[in-house]
Input
Amino acid sequence: MTTLERDRAPRPVKISIENVSKVFHTRAGPVTAIRDLSLVVYEGEFLCIVGPSGCGKTTLLRILAGLERQTSGVVSVNSGDDTRPLSSVVFQEQSVFPWFTVRENVAYGLRMRHVNKKLRDSIADYYIKKIGLTAFADSYPHQLSGGMKQRVSVARAFANDPQILLMDEPFGALDEQNRVLLQQELLKIWEGSQKTAIFITHSIDEALTLGDRVLVMTAHPGTVKAIVDINLPRPRRVTEIRRSPLFLELFTKIWEYLESEVLKAREANGFVQEAQ
Ligand SMILES: Nc1ncnc2c1ncn2[C@@H]1O[C@H](COP(=O)(O)OP(=O)(O)OP(=O)(O)O)[C@@H](O)[C@H]1O
Ligand SMILES: [Mg+2]
Output
């Protein structure tokens, strides 16, 4: 489907989030991580989420993954094909099993679903090739670099063939070069799959490179500050789209939404703004 056809096609809703709040009860008292957040995520879209540290991004993702329950509000997911897992998560921190090889890690979800070994190995090998780790398929995580381990996590999430991919700063700990390479790989795999994807990042560049829309969250407690459409054409090449004037324009727009929220979060955490 071309970009134009994608834009014109009616977009069914995949996830509907209505007035969701989450309060954690801690020894120091209640902590409202998310307050009254409403959002719709469309089938097959790539939604990026940016927001100051501690604004509730991970909490929202964990609610969507079913790992946490909201205190109030409704989350409904249109789970069309129930033979496929609903969601797979790539976590903020590295989450590969050290005692499994790369292939076993990538095939883990399929094994849990009792897919036979031959089929799961061939699916795993397909994604291992996509992420450029064929030579390391039989290696263990301790033999890999940090970036390679993150690639294994991404391949595992795709191999699981979920309806929704949830990614929490998967490239956050990587150096810039590896991050750009992985963004390109992710774009390639995702553009071929058209899965609904939600991707948290601290990088506006990254959100613009990957997303169809960017959700900007407010400072703690988090809710929707703005939603920005990213009308950059696909397929995207990381290096090319960064040169486009629209990229710069969107960067500035998102930063303008984000700046005041980041300052609020800093003040709440005890940072003092110096006089200009
Ligand atoms: N299990 C928990 N118990 C108590 N408070 C929590 C818990 N999980 C998160 N919080 C609080 O909820 C708020 C949101 O946390 P969350 O991890 O969702 O933020 P975040 O936006 O992902 O931040 P970062 O960008 O630093 O990853 C924070 O104030 C945090 O301290
Ligand atoms: Mg987080």
